[in-house]
Amino acid sequence: MLMLILGKILLRCMVMLSFCLICAYQLLILRLIHVA
């Protein structure tokens, strides 16, 4: 039971982290395009 709850929390954290990384990557690309 506890492992299931921890698994759901971990999965949610992984999704949020990947979303944040994608957003940061897009902002970095936009900044590079602006500079170029």
Which short descriptors sum up this protein?
36 residues; transmembrane; transmembrane helix; mainly alpha; single chain; membrane; 1 helix; rod-shaped
Report what the structure shows.
The chain crosses the membrane at residues 9-33. With 36 residues, the chain is mostly helical. The protein has one domain (1-36). It has 1 helix and no strands. The chain has one helix at 2-35. It is rod-shaped. The chain starts with a helix and ends with a helix. The relative contact order is 0.10.
Chain-wise SSE layout:
Layout: H1 2-35
Q: N- to C-terminal separation?
A: 53 Å
- The low-confidence parts are none
How many E strands?
0
> How would the global form be characterised?
rod-shaped
Count of DSSP helices?
1
Give a brief description.
The chain crosses the membrane at residues 9-33. This protein has one helix at 2-35.
